[in-house]
Structures are given as C-alpha cells and as structure tokens.
Design a protein that fits this description.
Number of domains: 2
Radius of gyration: 21 Å
Distance between the termini: 38 Å
CATH architecture of the largest domain: 3-Layer(aba) Sandwich
Helix content: 40-55%
Strand content: 15-25%
Strand order of the largest sheet: 3-2-1-4-5-6-7-8
Number of helices: 12
Order of helices and strands: EHEHEHEHEHEEHEHHHHHH
CATH topology of the largest domain: Rossmann fold
Length: about 280
C-alpha cells in the first residue's frame, strides 16, 4: 500500500489536524477524501492540496462514496455516533479496507461488531498537538490486521508526530499519559503563572515566564536527548534555590499525585468503554 486511498469521515479538530498533517508531510496518497456534515466545515478544508472535501448537507451519499475505494478509513465523529456510522457504511466498504477509529472508549469489539465478520479494525489515540504535527498517537489493531496494514496506518499518523503500537489495554493506559497529557501540561503552566502573579509580576509577564519556560525546557529536552532527570539535576545546584523548590514538591507528594491522577483517568476510560 505505497500510495493508499484515504477517507476521513468527520474532520473535526482531530480529524482535521490529521488531514492537514498528512497533506503537509507529503505522504503519497492515491486519493484523500474528507466528509463533514456542513458546507461551512467542508469549505474550510477544500483548498488543501489533493483533498476532496464534501459536505453531507450537499451530498447525502458522501460517506458511502468516500469509502467505496478507500484503503484506509478514519472515523472522526463523536464516540456516540461511531457504531451507527460504521453499520451504515459497512456494506459500502472496499474489501480489505482498514477502519481506524479516533473515538475514545470505542473498543475494537464494538468496531468489528458494527462492521461484520473479518473486519480490519484499529483504535487510534492521538492527542491535540497533532495540529502542529507534534502528536503522540497510540495504535492497537485487531487480529485481522496484517503487519503491512499496521505499517500503512502508522505512516498516516507519523505524518502528525510519534506513534506507539500497543494492545487494546495499552490504548486506555496510554490515554492517561499522552492522551490527557497536554491538559496536565497546560494546568501546570496555569499554576506556575499564578505563582508568578503571587510574586508580584503582571499577568502578561507571568504568562510569558511560565509558558516560555515550558516551551524552552521541552525544546532543550528534544534537542539534547538527555534524560529529564539529568537536565533537572543540572539546574538544581546543591543547597540552591531550585533545590528548595524541588524539596517542597517532593514533600507534597507530586510523584504519587500523578500516579493517582492517571489511575483515575484509566478508571474513567474503562467506564467509557463499558458504556457508562
């Protein structure tokens, strides 16, 4: 599948980010079709090179037509809509097509059950930095997908960042780290901004200090490839100011707090998968 035909049904924030990443990366595709409910949404993507963007409002059969020749079908609709959409398109799918769900809490069994016996199904868990091609995406495939199928889908998501392949249980666990992770980072930036305000800085300066410190630290980590603990130690001089701040965080149980937080996220992910 050197140049697959790709269809994306429902190009909201995540589906649209993946579409833009694929286009920007220059990934070879035989065709690239995307559908959305409204003409306004379809128009936002119509100018992308090599993309056919269709509104269901204008062409009610757009989903059926999009998947008829697609080798890879990405499902980007809301989780509650996934099963119905899959049942609807199941008889229009090209034989051997790989169906990839972006929806949280939608299991491989649910996907395969809606599509029918022998369906090739993959769960994908990207995160929002896909918009800037810095995503972490987890992929879990069912038993009907070949290594070649997984490689073809992996190439699509590598267009928007880094890919980790795992089993289905790993997808839920991954969602608590990289899936929810951007929110954790933004929350920490919010708190550091508040600390700067407490130290007497203006809101504008507080935001610059907090945000650019996170951006700069991440860039340094990426550029050097060093272990984060090593970089932390380089900043933390013995008996210095940073060491005192780290002591306070350790005493507050920051390490156990992150474990408790990700455990809570995992419990909710399992509830969603069970339909709760």
């Amino acid at each position: 599948m050197t140049a697959p035909a790709i269809a994306i049904l429902g190009a909201g924030s995540m589906g649209g980010a993946i579409l833009r990443g694929v286009v920007a990366s220059g990934l070879p595709t035989r065709s690239l079709i995307v559908t959305n409910r409204t003409a306004e949404k379809a128009a936002e993507l119509a100018d992308l090179a090599g993309v056919t963007s269709v509104a269901l409002a204008d062409s009610p059969r757009a989903n059926y037509d999009a998947v008829a020749d697609a080798d890879i079908v990405l499902i980007g609709v809301k989780p509650a809509m996934v099963a119905d959409l899959l049942r609807d398109i199941s008889t229009s799918l090209k034989p051997g097509a790989i169906v990839v769900s972006l929806a949280a809490g939608t299991t491989l069994a649910t996907i395969a059950g809606a599509l029918g016996e022998g369906a090739k199904a993959i769960r994908a868990m990207p995160n929002t930095p896909a918009i800037v091609r810095k995503a972490v995406t987890g992929l879990a495939a069912n038993e009907h997908c070949t290594p070649e199928d997984i490689a073809a889908v992996r190439a699509v998501f590598e267009a928007v960042g880094t890919v980790i392949t795992t089993d289905e249980d790993g997808i839920d666990r991954l969602s608590t780290i990289s899936g929810s992770g951007p929110a954790y980072v933004y929350f920490l930036i919010e708190q550091l901004t508040q600390a700067a305000l407490h130290q007497g800085f203006t809101l504008a300066d507080s935001r610059i200090m907090a945000e650019q410190t996170f951006i700069g630290a991440a860039a340094l980590l990426d550029a050097t490839g060093h272990d984060p603990a090593d970089l932390r130690r380089r900043v933390t001089s013995p008996k210095g100011t940073t060491e005192q701040a780290i002591f306070v965080m350790q005493d507050a149980g920051l390490d156990s707090m992150f474990i408790a937080a990700t455990n809570a996220a995992l419990a909710r992910a399992k509830e969603l998968a069970a339909g709760a």
